[in-house]
Design brief:
Keywords: Oxidoreductase
GO molecular function: NAD binding; oxidoreductase activity, acting on NAD(P)H; quinone binding
Protein name: NADH-ubiquinone oxidoreductase chain 49kDa
InterPro entries: ComplexI_49kDa-like, NADH_Q_OxRdtase_suD, NiFe-Hase_large
Number of helices: 13
CATH topology: Cytochrome-c3 Hydrogenase, chain B
Shape: globular
Radius of gyration: 21 Å
CATH superfamily: Cytochrome-c3 Hydrogenase, chain B
Strand content: 5-15%
Helix content: 40-55%
CATH architecture: Orthogonal Bundle
Number of strands: 8
Structural class: alpha+beta
Order of helices and strands: EEEHHHHEEHHHHHHEEEHHH
Length: 360
């Protein structure tokens, strides 16, 4: 008689954006996962109790996507007010968003290679991520409230020296990311642990309405920056990276290639950065109306809807990209080996901050 075993798997030690008690309960028989239960036990945040200003609250929504949240919110408010950020500000907004995307992807890759026991590669990724984070901090500066992107433009205009330093860093990191990816993606250990593991078909990805890297790794050609360009993306569109196999290997390769593309796109945006203002004057009052904006955050489409009410107050709602949930967990993990469960889950780049936002 075959006896099944139940495991409770916590992802918090490995996933940078996995902030609270989310659990996978796995039932295993004959060295295969036969049933999956996903539990999201993180207390949901209440905006009504917040003492922060809207822009502060938005910037603190997610630890890895603050630039994207600020940008989506700012674009929605600008649509509500009928204004547009100056060209120089739009370029610098793009640089901040793309550096954030590269940092997020490098962080996820670092966690994946750490989990696979490839310590040297993980350490290299951590070092590159740290240097890029420092470069982004230099770009953002010590602006008020720790926020760069605001409705109407940006709080701080980086100096020529800041731009030159960042361009030098971007060039160096682009070469390093390319060489690292070229060296590791065909290693036998990596192939053995990732190929045909945690596969998600293009059809399933479409049915789950996935977007972002998780969707593109399964063959879906979806990217807000390309499909509905906003800000500086209308002139500086990124190359859409797509992989077809939908397994952990495809997700790893895609994260590498997208990080590289973000570095190159940031450098292009800083090249011949136009002169001019970085803020426009905003109307003194809010119209009683609604507007929305969608950006491509590191994990996919991020939508903000804003509303000016009769009291002259600004209300907003956020809709992040679909994240790891019960149905996706079952699709990815059923019949997988227990030893692969954490790797599969981590390769989806799960974010509990985004999960909590969806229920706000």
């Amino acid at each position: 008689m075959e006896i099944g075993v139940t495991y409770i798997l916590s992802l918090e030690p490995a996933a940078a954006a996995w902030r609270g008690p989310q659990r996978l309960i796995l039932k295993v028989a004959a060295e295969q996962i036969t049933d999956v239960e996903y539990r999201f036990d993180l207390p949901l945040r209440s905006r009504s109790a917040s003492k922060l200003s809207p822009i502060q609250e938005v910037a603190q929504s997610c630890p890895t996507c603050s630039q994207s949240h600020s940008l989506a919110f700012a674009l929605a408010v600008e649509a509500l007010l009928g204004v547009s950020a100056p060209l120089r500000a739009s370029r610098i907004r793009l640089v901040a968003a793309e550096c954030e995307r590269a940092i997020s992807h490098l962080t996820t890759l670092e966690a994946i290679f750490t989990l696979m026991g490839v310590a040297t590669t993980a350490a290299t990724l951590a070092e590159m991520r740290t240097r890029l984070s420092q470069g982004l901090t230099q770009l953002v500066g010590s602006s008020a409230e720790g926020v760069l992107v605001v409705p109407g433009g940006i709080r701080r205009d980086p100096s020529a020296a800041d731009g030159a330093d960042l361009r030098s860093l971007l060039t160096t990191l682009s070469e390093q990311v390319y060489r690292l990816a070229d060296r590791v993606i065909d290693q036998r250990l990596i192939l053995a642990r990732t190929v045909a593991v945690g596969s998600l078909s293009e059809t399933a990805a479409a049915q789950f309405r996935l977007c972002g890297p998780l969707a593109r790794a399964s063959g879906l050609q979806t990217d807000v920056r390309v499909d509905a360009p906003y800000g500086a993306y209308a002139a500086l569109a990124p190359q859409m990276i797509v992989q077809r196999s939908g397994d952990v290997y495809a997700r790893v390769v895609l994260l590498f290639l997208e990080a590289l593309e973000s570095l190159k796109l940031s450098d292009r945006a800083l090249d011949n950065l136009p002169d001019g203002a970085v803020m426009v004057e905003l109307p003194q009052s809010l119209p009683v109306a609604q507007a929305e904006a969608t950006v491509e955050a590191p994990r996919g489409a991020l939508r903000y809807r804003v509303e000016g009410d009769t009291k002259g107050e600004l209300n907003f709602w956020v809709e992040p990209a679909p994240q790891f949930d019960r149905l996706l967990a079952r699709t990815l993990l059923l019949q997988a080996a227990p030893d692969d469960a954490l790797l599969i889950a981590l390769s989806t780049d799960p974010c509990s901050a985004c999960q909590a936002l969806r229920a706000m």
